[in-house]
Amino acid sequence: MTNSSILILAGDGIGPEVMTEVHKVIDWMSSARGITFDVSEDLVGGAAYDAHGTPLHDDTMERAQSADAVLLGAVGGPKYDDLDFSVKPERGLLRLRKEMDLYANLRPAQCFDALADFSSLKKDVVAGLDIMIVRELTSGIYFGEPRGIITEGNERIGINTQRYTESEIARVARSAFELARKRGNKVCSMEKANVMESGVLWRQVVNEVHAAEYSDVELSHMYADAGAMQLCRWPKQFDVIVTDNLFGDLLSDAAAMLTGSLGMLPSASLGAPMANGRPKALYEPVHGSAPDIAGQGKANPIACILSFAMALRYSFDLGDEADRVEAAVEKVLADGLRTADLIGAEGQSPISTAEMGEAIVAALDASL
């Protein structure tokens, strides 16, 4: 493959470190499998602000729109805490999601056997866990208007608006149902229809899409707070969970700890098909920029590498190669190699970010 383009936006904090290990896997695909990509790089977040005074330059946005896939590391850090809200690093990521119309955020939560004892839950609760959270990503309370901080009398008031159209709900529901058909054929939709009108509409539209197009898929509903409790009680009852922007953010981070570490979770944000039939797509680890360990070689690159595996699967139709990368990660973990975030036993020594990347490439070599 020589005509597929990847734009890499390493970002801030540990972003450049974990993305360096992704480069190793991309290089291995070229040298060992003859699968090459047109890879370019640019800035996002705090790095872009430092260079251009904006968290995402217009030229970078244009490049992202035309790329077959965007890989992002992480954005943000305490250096930028005092910036105006409009130019904070996170605004660059939100702009990418909004302008690329990446409405379906896929966040898998899979517990590798080697890490079942590392989860905060009992081994029998998480062993074999493999669920997918589909989070609506371009609407809801993060984007609704009106918003802001206003003053009435002597008091400040913070305002955010939860807003959804039926078409926004319907398209993310379809994404969840389509995924479920390729997995366990079950969808649980989560909202707060008991107290929020947007939740009432969410449930109505999901039911309508299900009845009209996906009656073969088992559908259930759950209030989002009850869903959080059930994720901690017995997560394997779920296959695909579909939910709104805010609840998806919270629930997927909670699901991360079922697997042992935020450093293990990838994500894919998918939009409508481009002219070539591929969806617009951005792939990123769920973890943040972790400025407290940036530059120290302590970061876990697995989530970022697994995000590239998701790109292989969803953007480039290379499911077998995605399986190969995921199997290499599983082998490295089964061999007992751990970055600092995965150290549980006293006396065990962690390996560095670079060593983990090299171990995964070695496992890829062994897979041939």
What order do the helices and strands come in, and which of them pair?
Blueprint lengths: L4 E7 L3 H19 L4 E5 L3 H7 L5 H9 L2 E6 L14 H11 L4 E7 L12 H4 L3 E7 L7 E9 L2 E7 L4 H16 L4 E6 L5 H17 L4 E6 H10 L6 E4 L1 H14 L9 E6 L5 E5 L18 H13 L4 H16 L18 H14 L2
Parallel strand pairs: 1-2, 1-3, 3-12, 5-10, 8-9, 8-10
Antiparallel strand pairs: 4-5, 4-11, 6-7, 11-12
Task: Give me the Rg, rounded.
Answer: 20 Å
Query: How far is it from the N-terminal to the C-terminal residue, by CA?
Result: 19 Å
- Please give the number of β-strands: 12
Characterize the main sheet: 10 strands, mixed
Structure description:
The protein has 12 helices and 12 strands. By secondary structure, it is an alpha/beta fold. The protein has a 10-stranded mixed β-sheet with strand order 2-1-3-12-11-4-5-10-8-9, with helices on both faces. Strands 6-7 form a two-stranded antiparallel sheet. Strand 1 (5-11), helix 1 (15-33) and strand 2 form a beta-alpha-beta unit. Helix 1 (15-33) crosses helix 10, helix 8 (224-233) runs parallel beside helix 9 and helix 10 packs antiparallel against helix 11.
Keywords:
single chain, 368 residues, alpha/beta, 10-stranded mixed beta sheet, 12 helices
Give a brief description:
The protein is of the alpha/beta class. The chain has 12 helices and 12 strands.
